Amino acid sequence: MTNTFRDFQISKNGDDVIFNYRVGLPTYGESLIKGEFRALGFNGIGYNLSPGMMVNSNHDRSNILDIEGKCAFSVEIDGQTLVSFWELIDSEKSEENEILNTRVTLRHKKRPVEVTVCTKIDGSGCFSRWLEIKNLDNKPVAMGKLAIMSGMLEMTPNWQKLLQDKESSPYRLGYFENTEHLHEGQFKWHTLPEDCFSFGGRYTRDRFRHPFYILENKAKGTCYAVQLAYSGGYRFSFDFRGTTNDGHLSYSCELDGVKPLRVIAAGETVTTPEVIISMVNGDMDDAIHQMHTHIRKAVMRRPHGEGCYLETCGNVELAAKRGFDIVYIDAGWYYPPGKPWNHWTGKWDVDPTRFPNGIKPLIDRAHACGIKFGLWMEPERLGIHLGAEGLFDKHEHMMCENHTGKRGEGVTAKGGQYNLADTECLAYIEDQICQMIEKTGIDMFRLDYNAVWEVISSFTYRMQDGYMEGNDFRYYENFGAMFDRIRAKYPNVIFENCASGGGRSDLGSTKYFDHTWVTDNPVAPRCFAITNGMTMCLPPELVDRLVTSMGAPKMASLEFQLYQLMFVRPTSHFPAETPENPLQIGKFEEFMELYRSFARPMLPTCKIYHHTPSFDDCEPKGVGILESVSEDKNRAMLGVFALCDPKESEQIVRFKGIDASKNYKITAVSAKESFVVSGYELKYKGIVCNIKGALTAELFLAEAL
């Protein structure tokens, strides 16, 4: 149940102005003190904050943190960091659809710059923050460093005396360990040291790390789930300073990339990406549930998850026979047979050899069978074959250029990434997408993005008003605006997001789509770590997972593969030329029926619990456990996945989310057994699951009686 209490209060203490945001019990405070817009931090018990609450009385707070470490945001204009000399111009609040929006406008006294601090709170327990930065000058300015949200997070009094072991910090920080393709979602805990610490992605590291973390304070019981809705380079930083008595933690959510990040024209206002913070006095599941509620209600462009479509790539009639909702063709409709698919991107006509009558007969067959039809497209990339045929020379001015002057990829340098930061290029790519949708008449559009590092937007630039502006910021401004327009133009088309798997799974891109392909890796045991991690940062109905192809048959039982898909949005590839195996098909049909009747109705509003969140290796060992529970607690499912080298033959499992006052019928799907257990016993004592061996699984379904 969403907590509907939310408010925004402004108070004065002499010349100081204090701003407090409350959503349920979580409270966040900021203050304008002597021209500095400072973060006062969070508490989870509903009290408004004031500057004195966050400071030990024996210490002047200005001696604890440097000036930039205190500020609730940080922006650099023309090489000058603007952290002081701010004055309050205006503040306002408005409410629409149970979402409270606030705006605090500050003007700089030394530079002609105005910053509006925008906050959205919807009752979920989350705070969403972005900035609107306006150039008041009569000439362009360059925005360098940008920390959208920063400053004091919290103070822990007597922290060293509150820990059982003599540790260097009360904090543990969890984030995705790997940044490489096929390694998405490997969540791992780290001790946050009494020092400066940071991690990032897409600029200093590879792009397959979702910009997300969970921070727990073992001394005071607070927990934060944080993510940045941005597809470009980013960095999360922390500075834990432990004095004799108290520990002070400051933090920063910062954009990272080629500087300047953005040139702001005279009179122009630039809107930054959002930082979303879920704060609780509780555990990581509580913080994740708040985050998922906020994403469902206040981030996604329209209600998502309705239908939770079952998708397959393959034969139309076979797809209908198996009970799928959508059949689509991946990268196999626009290039000649036997040729490399990625060499022909950039010209989006149906290949006449493959489809002499075009795509429409396939769509008509799908509709006659009662299912929808989709196509794949990678509009941001020009393949080297088409480039060599003359398209590169024609479009070279629209391609991304790196700092060595290179625009193309490969030996011939005749392909590469189109630069959406360029307005001419943006119009061209938008037209290409619209033409493809209209010419084919598809029901589902599958976007891919397989950029090559040396010409990817994070490492390229364009000349803007005399500055060598990094491409990322403007690129993704335009990307989002483009898909806003396309979604409005084609409201009945289903849009799926993919970028070599999980290369663009952040909410900055995902919010424009119906669901997201989070990885290209369905191979066990790593596939469980991916499912486990990606359902932390995204609600499960937005997470696509695949079974039966792309290497999945290499490892694991069919139950291990299929039961994972009960917790997300399933996709399957069944090649028409594969002879049917009745045992395999029987298991698959059983899964399809379970998904349709049991999982799908609860998925768009369910709570998901991660019993085994952290893995030390990308190939996890032991046992992994996931649980999903319906909003009314009348239905739940718990999957027990034996990973590699499980040491025990039995696993006691407890349902975390069910109602202890109810009785439940439990069905062990693999064992084909049913029994009745009280909710109290399920929740507080548990039931025994037999482990049959590595990469096997059991699925327990619970239905309230």
How is this structure best described in words?
By secondary structure, this protein is α+β, with helices and mostly antiparallel strands. The chain is 20% helix and 36% strand. Strands 7, 8, 9, 10, 12, 13, 15, 16, 20 and 21 form a ten-stranded antiparallel β-sheet that branches. It is globular and about 80 Å long. The two termini are 22 Å apart. Residues 55-64 have low confidence and may be disordered.
What's this, in brief?
With 705 residues, the protein is α+β, with helices and mostly antiparallel strands.
Residue-averaged pLDDT, rounded? Answer: 92
Structural class: alpha+beta
Helix % is: 10-25%
Unreliable stretches (pLDDT < 50, length at least 5) are: 55-64
Radius of gyration computed on alpha carbons: 26 Å
Counting H and I runs of at least 4 residues, what is the number of helices?
Answer: 13
Our estimate of the beta-strand percent is 35-45%
For the secondary structure, the number of strands is 42
Shape: globular
Terminal Cα span: 22 Å
Major beta sheet summary: 10 strands, antiparallel
How does the SSE layout of this entry go?
Elements: E1 6-13, E2 16-23, E3 27-33, E4 36-43, H1 61-64, H2 67-70, E5 74-77, E6 80-82, E7 86-96, E8 99-108, E9 113-121, E10 126-135, E11 141-157, E12 171-176, E13 187-191, E14 196-201, E15 212-217, E16 222-228, E17 234-242, E18 246-255, E19 262-264, E20 269-271, E21 275-281, H3 284-299, E22 311-314, H4 316-322, E23 326-329, H5 360-368, E24 372-377, E25 381-382, H6 384-395, E26 401-402, E27 416-417, H7 423-440, E28 444-447, E29 460-464, E30 467-470, H8 472-489, E31 494-498, H9 507-510, E32 515-517, H10 526-537, E33 543-547, H11 558-565, E34 569-574, H12 582-602, E35 607-610, E36 623-629, E37 635-642, E38 650-653, E39 663-668, E40 673-678, H13 679-685, E41 687-690, E42 697-704
Parallel strand pairs: 22-23, 22-34, 23-24, 24-28, 28-31, 31-32, 32-33, 33-34
Antiparallel strand pairs: 1-2, 2-3, 3-4, 5-6, 5-11, 7-8, 8-9, 9-10, 10-20, 10-21, 11-18, 11-19, 12-13, 12-15, 14-17, 15-16, 16-21, 17-18, 25-27, 26-29, 29-30, 35-36, 36-37, 37-42, 38-41, 39-40, 39-42
Helix pairs in contact: 7-8, 11-12
